[in-house]
Amino acid sequence: MSSLKVPASVPDPYEDAEQLKKAFKGWGTNEDLIIQILAHRNAAQRKLIRDSYAAAYGEDLLKDLDSELTSDFQRVVLLWTLSPAERDAYLVNEATKRLTASNWVIMETACTRSSDDLFKARQAYHARYKKSLEEDVAYHTSGDFRKLLVPLITAFRYEGDEVNMTLARKEANILHEKISDKAYNDEEIIRIISTRSKAQLSATFNHYNDHHGHEIIKDLEADDDDEYLKLLRAAIECLKTPEKYFEKVLRLAIKRLGTDEWDLTRVVATRAEVDMERIKEEYHRRNSVTLDHAIAADTSGDYEKMLLALIGHGDA
Amino acid sequence: MSSLKVPASVPDPYEDAEQLKKAFKGWGTNEDLIIQILAHRNAAQRKLIRDSYAAAYGEDLLKDLDSELTSDFQRVVLLWTLSPAERDAYLVNEATKRLTASNWVIMETACTRSSDDLFKARQAYHARYKKSLEEDVAYHTSGDFRKLLVPLITAFRYEGDEVNMTLARKEANILHEKISDKAYNDEEIIRIISTRSKAQLSATFNHYNDHHGHEIIKDLEADDDDEYLKLLRAAIECLKTPEKYFEKVLRLAIKRLGTDEWDLTRVVATRAEVDMERIKEEYHRRNSVTLDHAIAADTSGDYEKMLLALIGHGDA
């Protein structure tokens, strides 16, 4: 369900590296060439290009991209060019910094990555920041947010299909009881949400829906001023139907007065190679306009071209 | 610092497998032969023997050992023959079962393994139990024990030597303040203990000692009837000086009226290939008798022989 378009015949990575080097040379930068190459290579291919670039020129491609490009285009190219694990580590690190703090980015990363990918992000965090991802998340959060985010980000969920229906019934009842009592920060809610496999949670949420009259998400819509409650609801949405969660982030980012490029860039860069096709379907269904059209109407220039290339608009 | 004695020339694993098969045949089992082989092979070699045994006889060596052996000898041979990751997964699973429940085993596993080894145990748990290690730990614990054990068992600590001295001072002061208030279950204590690297914690505990007049361990000796407090203290001991923690577990296991084979077996099987030489030094220093002598005086038969072989008594 990747939206990436990779050409049938991909050039040798040394050739790609050479073209990129050329794109940086002389008066101005050749942004079209950068898009033509990087937006049409998968993660393994981008890694080879970075390695070839370092071997051929003794320089770091990311540093050169950083110094040659600017603004939103720079951010999307840099995020995209990073490996998925480095990118997640970078985003979470950013989300623990004062000026770019975001409990939402931490939650989104924790709840929408596969168990292996989330663990690889923790390994990449060690390598890049010389500390653990969870120590930064724990240090920079507090209260209920910390209680929820630390177990989410340190989870290594089982990913098999096995479901224990007795347990699903039992835990659906626990969730219903705590939610009825408005005990949204109860440790049992957090335990269930943060440790159970996605298949098990799906069974639990289905039981909740069937036996308690509403979807769990609806029952959590009590109070929209409660930031913790909104985050908990979004975590459940991410675990249950990530494409719906991402559709909503994109919708709100685009509909705002002045697009929220921060969210738009992050969602496109992190989902293009994962489930962007499903997110596009969901977006079209919900907004009666394609994501391609919405992005084209709201962005411009190289930034627009890069986003459209990543979501699979046009040919490789 | 492994106490294991591996012969200079190790037989082909198929040959070892064949010898083990012979040891099971006929009237009675040849326990000496089992010890002679398994107690003198490292983890990688034992893995090859299991693979060769399965390939040659279509049977699982562990199942055959299980049916051929009995009692304490059976348990030590089985635990030892498992790979370290499978063994940790097995021990933690056992520790979440009602009849063999043990917060101590969970804490000990969480705090004395390297980050990679702890993660491998979580992977092995998925493979063997079709669920995550943390979901069982969280489900089978509650209250303060859960608050402490879940972050400990899900940690992936940074393992570099880098230390932030400013942070060490700051967090030593936080620890001192909370301990002075007897707020032993405070979320800040748990955050620091469960997320910081062992090098960072060492600097923090040194600052605590230098500036607050006592070792942190001493300040936690307030109330020996408080099971949570004892567990917290032991967790700090495990993170700080694991050989002292294990020396104490062995000392208490041996000194009891009737040896505690459960603890003795676990410590020998899990530490022989890791830091048993340091534990033996510590034991000798503290008890004025060698661990070899203490074990020989308190155990007997094949169980005794196996334990002594694993702690490096006699030749390979």
Automatic annotation (TrEMBL), chains A, B:
One of its GO terms (biological process) is response to stress. Gene3D superfamilies: Annexin. It comes from the Eukaryota. InterPro entries: Annexin, Annexin_repeat, Annexin_repeat_CS, Annexin_sf, AnnexinD_plant. Ca(2+) 3 binds at residue 298. Ca(2+) 1 binds at residues 24, 26, 28, 68, 254, 256, 258, 296, 299, 304. Signal peptide: none annotated. GO terms for molecular function: calcium-dependent phospholipid binding; metal ion binding. Keywords: Annexin, Calcium, Calcium/phospholipid-binding, Metal-binding, Repeat. Belongs to the annexin family. A pair of annexin repeats may form one binding site for calcium and phospholipid. This is Annexin. It comes from Solanum stoloniferum.
